[in-house]
Write a structure and sequence with these properties.
There is one protein chain. It contains five helices and 15 strands. It is of the alpha+beta class. The protein has one domain. Strands 5, 6, 7, 8 and 15 form a five-stranded mixed beta sheet that branches. Strands 3-2-4 form a three-stranded antiparallel beta sheet, with no helix packed on it. It has a three-stranded antiparallel beta sheet with strand order 12-11-13, with no helix packed on it. The chain is globular and about 80 Å long. About 4% of the residues have low confidence. Keywords: Signal.
Length: 236
């Protein structure tokens, strides 16, 4: 009789564990859906009341020197134009959502939605670009925890900063970080080619930081444009 009671007592626990495993699989499958992993570019929409608006509105996000920056978009190709300060063709952000590895995150109760990270292909050196057999490399996109600059780098670098959750708005177009559409662009250098992407965590145009007091900050929306031609990639 004692054995039977123990068995009966264990049934709810077993059922609860099985349901938790099922729910975790559902959450994992949603985070790794084909739709979320479809590669996309990032276009800039800006309706700020500023004389500088035309420098950023309809620009495209590119990866240069470890940061997400802006470049004018060619109206025919819809890809970035080469600017006077660029030594090579700008590499457009070309990325998708990917759950950040659990081993780099604090332990969480089960079930829990995976923390959606954001990855992008990165600029390659000229010799590597000549090899058609080599898969493009991926880096993680993150917000610097101190400066709020939006950067890209290997996982070992990204995990020290704000790696997500990244997501999209209800219409599945605008980019969000930590549940809010609070990405802005900052004019780091004048001349039209000095804009970079920042995370305005407190939605105050970065006024609590020196950058918000000294440089022009424009609110904008980074909008997803799905890439028509996909390609194989390797994560770093």
């Amino acid at each position: 009789m004692v054995l039977d009671l123990l068995t009966l007592t264990a049934i709810p626990t077993a059922l609860g564990a099985a349901e938790a495993v099922h729910q975790q699989r559902v959450l994992d499958d949603e985070a790794e859906s084909d739709e979320r992993q479809a590669p996309f570019y990032l276009d800039v929409f800006c309706d700020a009341q500023s004389r500088k608006r035309d420098e950023v509105h309809e620009a495209i996000v590119v990866l240069i020197d470890g940061k997400l920056r802006l470049r004018p978009k060619d109206p025919k190709t819809k890809l970035p134009k080469r600017g006077p300060v660029d030594s090579a063709e700008p590499h457009p952000f070309t990325g998708f959502y990917l759950p950040f590895p659990d081993e780099d995150l604090p332990s969480r109760p089960m079930p829990a939605a995976p923390v959606l990270g954001l990855v992008s292909t990165i600029p390659s050196d000229p010799e590597a670009a000549k090899s058609k057999s080599r898969k493009p490399k991926l880096n993680w996109v993150y917000a610097d925890k101190d400066t709020r600059e939006v950067k890209y780098g290997p996982r070992s670098e990204a995990r020290e900063h704000v790696i997500g959750p990244w997501d999209w708005t209800e219409d599945e177009q605008g980019m969000t970080l930590d549940g809010e559409e609070t990405l802005v662009v900052v004019e780091e250098e004048k001349g039209g080619f000095g804009w970079a992407v920042y995370w305005d965590r407190d939605d105050d145009r970065l006024k609590e930081l020196d950058v918000g007091k000294k440089k022009r900050v424009l609110r904008c929306s980074l909008e997803r444009r799905v890439v028509n031609e996909g390609g194989e990639t390797d994560s770093d």
